[in-house]
Every structure is written in structure tokens, then in C-alpha cells.
Amino acid sequence: MAADPLSRVFSALADPTRRDIVARLAVGDATVGELAAPYDVTVQAVSKHLRVLEDAGLVSRSREAQRRPVHLEAEVFDLMTKWIERYRRQAEERYRRLDDVLRSMPDDVSPTHRTDDPPPQGGPP
Amino acid sequence: MAADPLSRVFSALADPTRRDIVARLAVGDATVGELAAPYDVTVQAVSKHLRVLEDAGLVSRSREAQRRPVHLEAEVFDLMTKWIERYRRQAEERYRRLDDVLRSMPDDVSPTHRTDDPPPQGGPP
DNA sequence: GTCTTCCTCAACCACTTGGTTGAACGAGGA
DNA sequence: TCCTCGTTCAACCAAGTGGTTGAGGAAGAC
């Protein structure tokens, strides 16, 4: 299984059924049976989906009599939004700078649109 | 392959190598060979990763002589942030309301913390 | 005690995925 | 022309995933 938390969150939300489960849990807590009702898959399959969401830290299950109400943990969303915003802002700033360069350029030179600084990061694997 | 765009974007970013590629493309465009250099996988594997990112709409490849510079398309991030923010806000508002309820409650009654409104959405599959 | 309900665990299956190797393609350069 | 470079396509493989069925476990209800 994917080790890093960010991969787990992205991977968990890559499934439309799991996203729908998250959407419904945002309205209120629910049990596995209630969550499984609208779909035409077995309860076991939904239980598996919930396990994926739980491993990603997106939901938590508590014991309440024989029911296991599922609860949405919205804080993990921050992990994603932080990552996304970081690179979105970086990219947008780059485009803004590029626009400035293009604006200050004479019309007869065709911009090659290449940056040849070597990538600063090392590969993760 | 996953049909809906949101699943494709989430799935594309669920891989740490692909996230690293996106991070490096935020700095500037690069060719497949340049992108593959830091990793100890083959160029073909990186080309496959780029195809996944391209299918998700996150990058675009243009033809420039025999090189194929890869370009980051940051607009697709909006798709994710919109989805995330929607349910995060919904969940947070629910917690706020729950806090109000708890605050206005007498101390001797134990809150059961259950919402029994049936989920309004129908399942997608 | 015995039921019934709700849920999870364990196998199993079809399909996808991330990686490999090898071959082929397109565009310049000799 | 032929060669080389950068890239992609094709086939293959091990591992992961989403689904199934069947069995088992935990807590009320009888």
C-alpha cells in the first residue's frame, strides 16, 4: 500500500463511490448499512471503501452498541489543499513573469518559451 | 480507465513520482528526458506517467523540433479545490452547528451525536 | 440460553497499474 | 543517403484494486 499520507488521501478520493460517501458524510454521520443502501454493491464492498478512507485518515469509526457510525475527519483535506495551492501559486507566478517578459519584448523575436534551469529536487524513489 | 475528470485528476496525483513531476513542471517546462533524469526508472516509465497526467488534463505536450516539451496546466487544480472546499465547508459548518447544540444543552443529557436524515444523494453506479 | 442484526474477515476472480525490455518512429546532422 | 537522438508503441510481468460469496463475531432482543 502507498506509504505516504498524501498519496493515500489522493488515492482514496480517486474513486467516485468514495467521493460520494465523503459527500454524504459531510451532511452527517452514518452507519455502514445506511451508506451502502443507495449503491447496488454489497455491504462488504462499502466496508472496504470505508477502510480505504479510514487508512487515509478521512473518516473514523466509533463503536456505539452494535452499530459503527462513520464520521468524517475534514482536517485531512488541508494536506491536499496545501500541496495544490503551493504548486498552483508557483505555476501562476511563473506565467505572470512570462507575461511580463513577453510584454517587454520586441515583436520580431519569437519567444522559445523554454526554461533551462535544472530541476532542483531529487527524485523520491 | 476512470471516466470522470475528477477521478482522473485525483488518481493522477496519487503517485509520488507524478506529484514530483508536477512540482518540477511548476518551476518550468521540461522535456521527457530531463524529467526522467533524476529518477532511477526508465524513460518509458516516465513517458507513461506523463500520459496519465496528460489524460487528467494536468499537462500538455507540444511539438518543438524533435523535442516534446511538457507544460503544466494549472487550471485543472480548480476542479479539485472546488470539490474539496465544498465538502470541507459543509463539514465545518455542521460541526459549528453541533457545537451550538451542545453548548445550549443541559449537562445531564448525554448527546447521542447521531443524525438520522437519510442521505439525499443517489449512488452514482 | 437462542435468535437476529450489523458488521468485518478470508478467499477468490477479473481488471488495472507501474514497471520492464525491445522495436519503431520522426526530425536533424554526417 | 545513413546515423543518431529523443520519444513513443507493444508485449509482457508482478502487484494492487474493486468486486463477489461465504463464514464468523459482537451486541441487543426474545
Automatic annotation (TrEMBL), chains A, B:
<dbReference type="InterPro" id="IPR001845">
    <property type="entry name" value="HTH_ArsR_DNA-bd_dom"/>
</dbReference>
<feature type="domain" description="HTH arsR-type">
    <location>
        <begin position="1"/>
        <end position="91"/>
    </location>
</feature>
<dbReference type="InterPro" id="IPR011991">
    <property type="entry name" value="ArsR-like_HTH"/>
</dbReference>
<dbReference type="Pfam" id="PF12840">
    <property type="entry name" value="HTH_20"/>
</dbReference>
<dbReference type="InterPro" id="IPR036388">
    <property type="entry name" value="WH-like_DNA-bd_sf"/>
</dbReference>
<feature type="compositionally biased region" description="Basic and acidic residues">
    <location>
        <begin position="101"/>
        <end position="117"/>
    </location>
</feature>
<dbReference type="InterPro" id="IPR036390">
    <property type="entry name" value="WH_DNA-bd_sf"/>
</dbReference>
<protein>
    <submittedName>
        <fullName>ArsR/SmtB family transcription factor</fullName>
    </submittedName>
</protein>
<feature type="region of interest" description="Disordered">
    <location>
        <begin position="101"/>
        <end position="125"/>
    </location>
</feature>
